[in-house]
Amino acid sequence: MESVKTTVLGKSVFLLTGARSRKTTFKGKHSHTLVVEAPEKLIETARRNPDAVAFGFVAGSWVAAA
């Protein structure tokens, strides 16, 4: 299982599920794009759980995992 590390509300967190990193190439340059399921729900969950360092996307909503 691959987890993604990103910043939410100014804090570095792990997204255990619900996000994937996509690698693209355009004109010979490589870039990585992060695709997140329901980003507005992730921000809301992060506000409710300010001490959480990991989140997971389960059954259509984000939950604090650690």
Give your account of this protein's structure.
The protein is elongated and about 40 Å long. It starts with a strand and ends with a strand. The strands form 2 sheets. The chain has a 4-stranded mixed β-sheet, covered by helices on one side. The protein contains 1 helix and 6 strands. Strand 3 (19-26) and strand 4 (29-36) form a beta hairpin. It has one domain. The longest helix has 10 residues, at 39-48. With 66 residues, the protein is α+β, with helices and mostly antiparallel strands.
Tell me briefly what this model is.
With 66 residues, the chain is α+β, with helices and mostly antiparallel strands. It has one helix at residues 39-48; strands at residues 4-8, 11-15, 19-26, 29-36, 54-58, 61-64.
Low-confidence stretches: none
User: How many discrete structural domains?
Assistant: 1
- Which sheet architecture does the biggest sheet show? 4 strands, mixed
**Using only CA atoms, what is the Rg?**
13 Å
Beta-strand content bin? over 45%
Which percent bin holds the helix content? 10-25%
Principal-axis shape equals elongated
Derived structural class: alpha+beta
State the distance separating the first and last CA atoms. Answer: 16 Å
The overall average pLDDT, rounded, is: 92
- What is the helix/strand order? EEEEHEE
State the total count of DSSP E strands. 6
Q: What is the spatial order of strands in the main beta sheet?
A: 1-2-5-6
Number of helices: 1
Observed structural traits:
alpha+beta; 66 residues
Secondary-structure topology with pairs:
Elements: E1 4-8, E2 11-15, E3 19-26, E4 29-36, H1 39-48, E5 54-58, E6 61-64
